[in-house]
Amino acid sequence: MSEVTTISVVARDRAGKGEARETRRQGLVPGVIYGNKQPPLTIAVLPRLLWAEMNKAGFATRLFDLGIDGKTERVLCRDVQRHPVSGLPVHVDFLRVGAESKVHVRVPVHFTNHDKSPGIKRGGVLNVVTHELEVIASANAIPSEIVIDLTGLDIGTSIHLSAVVLPPGATAVVHEKNPTLATIAAPTVTPAGEAGAAAEAGETTA
Questions:
Q1: The whole model's pTM is what?
Q2: How many helices (H) and strands (E) in the chain?
Q3: What is the pLDDT at residue 19?
Q4: What's the pLDDT score for residue 61?
Q5: 90 lies in which domain range?
Q6: What is the CATH number for 141?
Q7: pLDDT (tens digit, 9 = 90+) per residue, 27-43?
Q8: What are the 10-residue block averages of pLDDT along the chain, 206 residues in total?
Q9: In angstroms, rounded to a whole number, what is the distance separating the alpha carbons of residues 29 and 24?
Q10: DSSP letters for 62-104
Q11: Which residues fall within 8 angstroms of residue 84, CB to CB, at 6 or more apart?
Q12: Do β-strands 146-149 and 102-112 pair in parallel, antiparallel, or remain unpaired?
């Protein structure tokens, strides 16, 4: 389940490019909260707070409680616009979510226990086909990541979506039946010992 992080923000009086520029001149990042059948709310947030959260794992799948004038808005971050040179945030969009909200998110796929895979230990290569999985989930059941255990997997193994267990209330969005997420392929370079043995065998035959 996705964790919830609290961030304090301030309300802005108006929307528009001019007002957003003025907000940036004040050292804040302008933003907007929208969705859940409520009117949009323009806000501003301290850049250090936003930057700190952006650099934590699972930023796009984590829930936030935004504190505004004594009230709280539960949201997901939907978009962060960055400065083209510095990469720092210049605008942020938050989507309101309620207890019954269903949201569309991309969840990162992580692979663990590489050292316990016979195939990888023999020089096999993990070819990741899907780095993120598209998921529809209720707001309080968003997985922060999808973890796939490589223990016991050998060269030639294909890891399919059927190997993934999602939390209750979450379903994967797929465009084909049981898609492949990763494979363990044979090494593309022959290990030095095997190459030497092959060369010796060739000389003996000659």
A1: 0.73
A2: 4, 14
A3: 82
A4: 87
A5: 4-98
A6: 2.170.120.20
A7: 999 999 998 888 999 99
A8: 80 80 91 91 93 88 89 92 91 89 89 95 94 89 89 96 86 90 86 51 47
A9: 6
A10: -EEEEEETTEEEEEEEEEEEE-TTT--EEEEEEEE--TT-EEE
A11: none
A12: parallel
